[in-house]
């Protein structure tokens, strides 16, 4: 029997007259990598925002995390419960060292302090294979791929059970995307459930065990990634018919 760690029931988000997320339901199984795809503006980031409450929760529906209803809870309470995320934008504190950036998530999301926080940050940096000799560098001086590693390390330093990644491959070269692919599977093998939004289809198909496609805020289809991506409705909506 699948063991859902995250379940959405009829989740909806409206902005005035616009329904950005429309009656979305799905369940993520503990331990899997669950991919979310869809054309620009289909509601992917809004869906992540609804789940984490940053900066807003849903206007309708229910979200259950590890057996507890979390919609309507404050963002830091959701973070502390074990649901951690990354954002599309870059590191917010360029003057912090790489170590300090990695520690941010452990502090805010994990409630860790002192030696425990330092250890959690170090462990997360090890897990994302961030070079030991670069850990005292300013975050601003770290490479694009290094900043991605730091963003993921920071999210992992809170020791989450679910890691949500919003387009982690944007701005990366092909070899870096291959490295990210390996890294995500490595993180997943430690027992962390992953939800990933990604426009780089090769990465999404490689890491995801299941794939959900959104179109105009609604679930178009969900299932085995290779089958989903061949669905003519997905080809039409996601690739604009170009691959048909
Ligand atoms: N804060 C907001 N206020 C008003 N409208 C919003 C807000 N956030 C998102 N939207 C609208 O909701 C819809 C879904 O946007 P969203 O960013 O979730 O799509 P997306 O699938 O993540 O797109 P992309 O792939 O380009 O990142 C869009 O029409 C967008 O303009």
TrEMBL record:
User: What molecular function does GO assign, one term?
Assistant: ATP binding
Entries under Pfam families matching the protein:
ABC_tran, BCA_ABC_TP_C
Q: Which domain of life is it from?
A: Bacteria
Keywords noted in UniProt: ATP-binding, Nucleotide-binding, Transport
- Report domain ABC transporter positions: 6-241
Q: Which InterPro entries match?
A: AAA+_ATPase, ABC_AA/LPS_Transport, ABC_transporter-like_ATP-bd, BCA_ABC_TP_C, P-loop_NTPase
The UniProt record lists the keyword Transport: yes
Cited SMART domains: AAA (SM00382)
Q: Which GO terms describe its cellular component?
A: plasma membrane
Q: What is this protein called?
A: Branched-chain amino acid transport system ATP-binding protein
User: What organism is the protein native to?
Assistant: Salipiger marinus
């Amino acid at each position: 029997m699948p063991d859902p760690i995250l379940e959405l029931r009829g989740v909806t988000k409206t902005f005035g007259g616009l329904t950005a997320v429309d009656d979305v339901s799905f369940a993520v199984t503990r331990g899997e990598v669950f991919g979310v795809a869809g054309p620009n503006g289909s509601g992917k980031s809004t869906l992540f925002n609804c789940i984490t409450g940053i900066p807003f929760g849903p206007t309708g529906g229910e979200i259950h995390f590890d057996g507890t209803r979390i919609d309507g809870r404050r963002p830091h309470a959701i973070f502390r419960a074990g649901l951690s995320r990354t954002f599309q934008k870059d590191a917010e504190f360029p003057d912090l060292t790489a170590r300090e950036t990695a520690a941010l998530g452990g502090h805010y999301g994990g409630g860790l302090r002192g030696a425990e926080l330092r250890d959690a940050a170090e462990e997360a940096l090890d897990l994302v294979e961030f070079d030991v000799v670069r850990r005292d560098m300013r975050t601003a001086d770290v490479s694009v791929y290094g900043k991605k590693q730091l963003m993921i390390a920071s999210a992992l330093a809170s020791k989450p059970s679910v890691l949500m990644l919003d387009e982690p491959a944007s701005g990366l070269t092909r070899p870096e995307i291959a490295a990210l692919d390996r890294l995500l599977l490595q993180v997943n093998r430690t027992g962390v459930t992953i939800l990933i939004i990604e426009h780089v289809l090769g990465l999404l198909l490689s890491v995801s065990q299941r794939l959900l496609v959104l179109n105009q805020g609604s679930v178009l289809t969900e299932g085995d990634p290779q089958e989903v991506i061949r669905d003519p409705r997905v080809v039409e909506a996601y690739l604009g018919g170009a691959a048909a």
